[in-house]
Amino acid sequence: MSATPVEYAVLAEVVRNGFVESVHYGSVSGLAPDGSLAHARGDVHGTVLPRSTTKPFQALACLTAGAPLTGERLAIAAGSHTGEDFHVKTVAAILADAGLGFEALQCPATPPEDGRTRAALIRAGEPDESRERMNCSGKHAAMLAACVANDWPVETYLDPNHPLQQGVRTTMADAAGERPVPVAIDGCGAPLFGLTLTGLARAAQSLVRAKNGPYRAVADAMREYPEYVGGTGHQNTELMRALPGSVVKGGAEGVLIAATAEGHAVAVKVIDGSPRATTAIALGALAALGVDVPPAAAEPAAVPILGGGRVVGEIRTTEGK
């Protein structure tokens, strides 16, 4: 994806007391249920690094490789959890069934994203940074479980040439309908494979269009256990609850995918990397595709602009302008 702003659309505006203070450029690719490109803003054929929107497909690769993942375990493998205690308990269970502990995780040690959990750890005198609290630990635990199930080496599970990671690449190619390039390293240390924005939308659509099999299993786990995809009050979690049957997954650097039960799918990339408007942008794109977006779905997307502790503005999308 080029960094030239003129190739992108203005997707959202930050409005303070009626004054447009900032804008977010980017691209949106939207697919109709039949798979056709029905909505496009900006550069939808350029390559993006999908960041954590990749997780449902990494979970899919682990599942098809034989990792024993169901229910909340499969949901957390596909999610970016907020490090709450129930998340850590699930990560521990995945590892324990594989005969491993937290020390096998190779993701970085970070504080939990959930502020209340971090405060509780500090009050208790416990370390507030750990690998198991890192938002990618569910994915890493699933990868380790897949390695154990296949007698693959666990020490090198993050190597791009490891059979597990080659399986992830193949899975992403199948879901997106294109060859994933380039190969980068994500913030958690896992290999990251680039896709076009439209390919990423196709991958999202593949989850909700599946009638059975592992694709359907991943989608159902995310929909049934949205609190494991994000966490308490997380935008992804709340949006899936507000749009029954949908699959939503955000990623770092302003990437987000959303697909409805009817098969509409959108992929968003905000080129400045900010995620603050991505949910609202995705909802606007879904509405443009003809999805009836209920008012409850707008609540997780709302980002108030404060002045002196009062709401003095909003972040508004430019869809339809």
Structure description:
The protein has helices at residues 55-64, 71-77, 85-97, 115-123, 137-150, 163-176, 197-209, 213-224, 226-229, 235-242, 278-288, 295-301; strands spanning 9-16, 19-31, 37-41, 47-48, 183-185, 191-193, 195-196, 247-251, 255-259, 265-270, 304-307, 310-317. By secondary structure, the protein is of the alpha+beta class. Strands 1, 2, 3, 8, 9, 10, 11 and 12 form an 8-stranded antiparallel β-sheet that branches. A two-stranded antiparallel ribbon has the order 4-7. Helix 3 (85-97) packs parallel to helix 5 and helix 6 (163-176) packs across helix 7. The chain is globular and about 55 Å long. The two termini are 24 Å apart. The model is unreliable at 1-5 (pLDDT under 50).
Question: Helix proportion of residues, in percent?
Answer: 25-40%
The percentage of residues in β strands lies in 15-25%
Low-pLDDT residue spans: 1-5
The residue-averaged pLDDT reads: 95
Number of strand segments: 12
Series of H and E elements: EEEEHHHHHHEEEHHHHEEEHHEE
Shape: globular
First-last Cα distance: 24 Å
Please describe the biggest sheet, giving its number of strands, its sense, and whether it closes into a barrel.
8 strands, antiparallel
Secondary-structure-based class equals alpha+beta
Q: How many separate helices?
A: 12
Cα Rg = 19 Å
